[in-house]
């Protein structure tokens, strides 16, 4: 498995081996031993899958607050997304900075988003399906967000702001400057 780090500590890009033959390919998309070598002592308790029918759909930026904080291992089954993780660890030297990567069914890349990061993505193709493993169960009371279009974050979303497809919830998240210190 290929592992790539970012200038921000925590997130990782992972690319499991794909074994191709005349039928197509085979791949261990999750192997606890190999992923624990890369990610440390993580335990996944829930798998989530979403389908976004339109290109330019933005979901995010989301996180769960402690004690329900989640690490997320994100990959794409169909289509492609521009995936983003924003550092919201208040004491971090990279607080408010983000990492991003294109994840696609084609490039077979997964993004590890540790707890302490707000996560979101923008679909690059119609009918993009995202599958991600999380380290804590969903908790509605801890499910929080950060404004995807906060100018302070300056994220180069691959869609014109007026054309992004969003949930009602994602129109209403606070800006970084108004975000309480959930993570130290
Ligand atoms: C996240 C989640 C949502 N739900 C419910 C709540 C709601 O009725 C419906 C849709 O939820 P949302 O609108 O929050 O779905 P969505 O906007 O896709 O939320 C997801 O976005 C990406 C970027 C993430 O990082 C995820 O952790 C998650 O927050 O599904 C669950 O039952 N379990 C879950 O784990």
UniProtKB/TrEMBL annotation:
<comment type="subunit">
    <text>Homodimer.</text>
</comment>
<dbReference type="InterPro" id="IPR011051">
    <property type="entry name" value="RmlC_Cupin_sf"/>
</dbReference>
<dbReference type="GO" id="GO:0008830">
    <property type="term" value="F:dTDP-4-dehydrorhamnose 3,5-epimerase activity"/>
</dbReference>
<dbReference type="InterPro" id="IPR014710">
    <property type="entry name" value="RmlC-like_jellyroll"/>
</dbReference>
<feature type="active site" description="Proton acceptor">
    <location>
        <position position="62"/>
    </location>
</feature>
<comment type="similarity">
    <text>Belongs to the dTDP-4-dehydrorhamnose 3,5-epimerase family.</text>
</comment>
<protein>
    <recommendedName>
        <fullName>dTDP-4-dehydrorhamnose 3,5-epimerase</fullName>
        <ecNumber>5.1.3.13</ecNumber>
    </recommendedName>
</protein>
<dbReference type="GO" id="GO:0019305">
    <property type="term" value="P:dTDP-rhamnose biosynthetic process"/>
</dbReference>
<keyword id="KW-0413">Isomerase</keyword>
<dbReference type="InterPro" id="IPR000888">
    <property type="entry name" value="RmlC-like"/>
</dbReference>
<comment type="pathway">
    <text>Carbohydrate biosynthesis; dTDP-L-rhamnose biosynthesis.</text>
</comment>
<dbReference type="Pfam" id="PF00908">
    <property type="entry name" value="dTDP_sugar_isom"/>
</dbReference>
<feature type="site" description="Participates in a stacking interaction with the thymidine ring of dTDP-4-oxo-6-deoxyglucose">
    <location>
        <position position="138"/>
    </location>
</feature>
<dbReference type="GO" id="GO:0005829">
    <property type="term" value="C:cytosol"/>
</dbReference>
<comment type="function">
    <text>Catalyzes the epimerization of the C3' and C5'positions of dTDP-6-deoxy-D-xylo-4-hexulose, forming dTDP-6-deoxy-L-lyxo-4-hexulose.</text>
</comment>
<dbReference type="GO" id="GO:0000271">
    <property type="term" value="P:polysaccharide biosynthetic process"/>
</dbReference>
<feature type="active site" description="Proton donor">
    <location>
        <position position="132"/>
    </location>
</feature>
